[in-house]
């Protein structure tokens, strides 16, 4: 335990170090102490609560500001089935407007992954486009194969014609 930083010689097996070669060691600068005078803020969590409350920390309960946003998480939170409407269960929060005399209003998050008829329509459209593309490419491939076969056949015909001509000229 030292108040300054320490240069440790780390080798294989030490945490925070992965050797690149066998037997390689490397010096790394680490804090000599967990808590020292050069720290301005400490992030702590209460592990065990004593009999007395810590003023401003354990005597006040702050509710969570935001509820779940994803449809499945809202379902799990309220124990809903797939048939229940999730939109009724969205946690809304009251907003006090800054203007004088304006009525307070509520805000709710936009639910993500909510299955709506529009989303189903988009999905159907995507699948139809994919199917159409596949059919078009299949037709194009067939057309090309036919053209290729025709060209090969013509080439073969030409070759046989040449052979015949040569053979007939040799006979004379």
From TrEMBL:
SMART domains recorded: Ribosomal_S6e (SM01405)
Signal peptide (UniProt feature, chain positions): none
Region entry Disordered, spans: 153-172
Keyword check for Ribosomal protein: yes
Family: Belongs to the eukaryotic ribosomal protein eS6 family.
Protein name: 40S ribosomal protein S6-B, variant
GO molecular function, a single term: structural constituent of ribosome
Gene Ontology biological process terms, A to Z: translation
Entry's Gene Ontology cellular component terms: ribonucleoprotein complex; ribosome
Keywords, comma-separated and alphabetical: Ribonucleoprotein, Ribosomal protein
Amino acid composition bias (Basic residues), ranges on this chain: 161-172
Pfam families reported in the protein's UniProt record: Ribosomal_S6e
Highest taxon listed in the record's lineage: Eukaryota
Natural source organism: Exophiala oligosperma
């Amino acid at each position: 335990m030292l108040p300054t930083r320490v240069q440790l010689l780390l080798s294989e097996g030490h945490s925070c170090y992965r050797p690149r070669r066998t037997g390689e060691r490397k010096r790394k600068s680490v804090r000599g102490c967990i808590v020292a005078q050069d720290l301005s803020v400490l992030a702590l969590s209460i592990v065990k609560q004593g009999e007395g409350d810590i003023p401003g920390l354990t005597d006040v309960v702050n509710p969570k500001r935001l509820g779940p946003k994803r449809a499945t998480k809202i379902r799990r939170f309220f124990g809903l089935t797939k048939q229940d409407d999730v939109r009724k269960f969205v946690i809304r929060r009251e907003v006090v407007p800054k203007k004088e005399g304006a009525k307070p209003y509520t805000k709710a998050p936009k639910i993500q992954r909510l299955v709506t008829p529009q989303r189903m329509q988009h999905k159907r459209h995507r699948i139809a486009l994919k199917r159409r593309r596949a059919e078009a490419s299949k037709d194009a491939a067939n057309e090309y194969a036919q053209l290729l076969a025709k060209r090969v056949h013509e080439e073969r015909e030409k070759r046989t014609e040449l052979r015949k001509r040569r053979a007939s000229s040799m006979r004379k």
